[in-house]
Amino acid sequence: MSKVVALANQKGGVGKTTSTINLAYALAQKGKRALAVDCDPQGSLTLYFGYNPDELEDAGHTLYNAMMGEKAMDSIILGDNPALLPASISLANAEPELLVRIMSSSQKVLREKLKGIRDRYDFILLDCPPSLGLLTINALVAADLVLVPVKTDNLSFHGVARLFQTVEQIQSDLNPTLRIAGILPTQYNPRNLHDNEILTGVRQALDGQSVRIFDPVNRSTVFDKATSTGLPTVATTPGSASVLSYHQVADTLINLP
Ligand SMILES: Nc1ncnc2c1ncn2[C@@H]1O[C@H](COP(=O)(O)OP(=O)(O)OP(=O)(O)O)[C@@H](O)[C@H]1O
Ligand SMILES: [Mg+2]
Fold this sequence. Notes:
This protein has 257 residues and is α/β, with parallel strands linked by helices. It is built from 12 helices and 6 strands.
């Protein structure tokens, strides 16, 4: 049975896409079949994988085409392991188009579309856009687990309460089996007082709740290098400390019931 994991945080730039691609590669390196799905019209994940979103858009080869029923889901998958379901700016049109669909419920489109390909993968990682709009809702309705990357060098943790409210709402209305996999602090600088204060604040805020806080992924320049090569840090710099953090997260995801 495959696990679908949404990497969600409505705050921008917290490491959703970086975590998605690095976890996809880490899971593949552990012999798991992994599919990364670009649910963000920015197409960053598609770029990080080394593809050109504009070309894919022209070819009608994106998640938008599949969500709107123009293409079969499996016909737009790129690569093998990890595989990628790419996106481009046209995915932004999906939000209003989903809103006006009167028949089927618009929050469940991605979930339904994934059904046909779920069994081929051990993990499907959904890289969400920085908003709580219908695309993130679609991802949370399609997911079994939600992983929340949080940047530790500013106040991005404030948005997490709002995200958790949304998760609760989705659990009660649309996807009762959705669980929070945990919070993943990213871009953490252990020598920075502010980073440590934020991390302590996160731990205190969640004290008593059964939310897992993963060991932080350290801030490192290796990530900037990787985005220009089409390969993630997990593949290009396998020995770096940040990569080991992603392997720990991958192992936890593998061992979750
Ligand atoms: N641990 C890290 N150390 C240093 N830089 C990092 C780290 N993780 C991510 N970055 C960098 O931070 C930037 C934002 O990361 P990323 O694109 O993964 O965030 P995002 O949450 O997906 O953003 P958006 O909300 O726009 O989709 C990128 O330039 C990435 O290379
Ligand atoms: Mg992103």
